[in-house]
Amino acid sequence: MLLKKRGHTWLIASSMVSLVVLMMLLYGTIGSQQPGSSSLRRDYQLLGRPLYKLDLSWPKNPELFGGLVFAVAVNQYAGVVYVAQRGDNVPKVLVFTTDGDFLMSWNTTTLEMPHGMFLADAASLNPTVWITDVGNGPNGHCIKQYSPSGKLLQVLGTPGKAGSALDPLQFDQPAEIFVHDSGEMYIVDGDGGMNNRLIKLSTDQQVLWVHGEKGQGMAQFYIPHSVTVDSAQRVWVADRGNKRIQVFNSITGDWLGTWGSCFTEDAPYSVRLTPDKKYFVVVQLNTNQISLLDAPPVGLIGQCSVVSVIQLADEVKPHLVDLDLKTGALYVAEIGAQQAQKFIPFSLGGSFL
Fold this sequence. Notes:
By secondary structure, the chain is mainly β. The protein has helices at residues 2-27, 347-350, and strands spanning 31-32, 44-48, 52-54, 68-75, 80-86, 93-97, 102-106, 114-120, 128-133, 142-146, 152-156, 174-179, 185-189, 197-201, 207-211, 213-214, 220-221, 224-229, 234-239, 244-249, 255-259, 270-273, 279-284, 289-294, 306-312, 318-323, 330-334, 339-345. It has a 6-stranded antiparallel beta sheet with strand order 1-2-25-24-23-22. A 4-stranded antiparallel beta sheet has the order 3-28-27-26. Strands 4-5-6-7 form a 4-stranded antiparallel beta sheet, with no helix packed on it.
């Protein structure tokens, strides 16, 4: 009788442990599914330690998206998010608050095919939005600076003229620009065009150094697609065609190392740092993944290490991302789903700071 009672107790305990494990798998490290208003499923899965959750309330009017969404840029001081899209008879830029309210659209004719976007001088009284234009028409192959309301302020490159490797400031489908707090600019020029270059410009837009050779070797590129700079004077470039991230010294331009082991299945499309500088956020379009990679300490490059993965639904096609440096919120431009989405960090009560 005692044996039967012990066996019954063991069976109950075992069942409770199994239930706890199942709950952990469903709601802890593996992830969850969220309903959405898009025709494509907006569910996602968190692999590894969950760091983000989807904000289903952002934006409040998702029906405003009318084209293919390629880029996002955040002004954390003003609480504003810029979304760049392509398509016939659609505004090229939509502007929302970080809470999801719609503010305005840019019905500008100066943009053909926006690709990358960066918010510069965010803390100043005169922030500006830089957009790379990969169009083949009279306004394409340029990098353009706009006011927050969409007024064209400046153009880098010659509109409508695809460049060559001979002139560093003659672009051919420039992919993205990163403007440092110092005002220095880093440009990846080569979204499938003739050029495959990483260019650094001074504050007065003079060329400081260039890596511009196509290939698979050190400091060579094949479709450099995204660029960011960390606080340790290192430049990180998503070398899409070579399925790797290359690292350079931001002062000298010297090659420092390569990350490739994390990208055997798909190439990195976008690279950004979280506000606490602990993680790189890297997008892989074809596998519909957003990965968080450990950022190495100063003086070390090493190899990449994936901490967490947000697995988006099939055919979402995430392209480029940006982060709110105040809250840590992650904004994702999605070509396939034709929308931008917001993810909120779990860490520190919803903030990476």
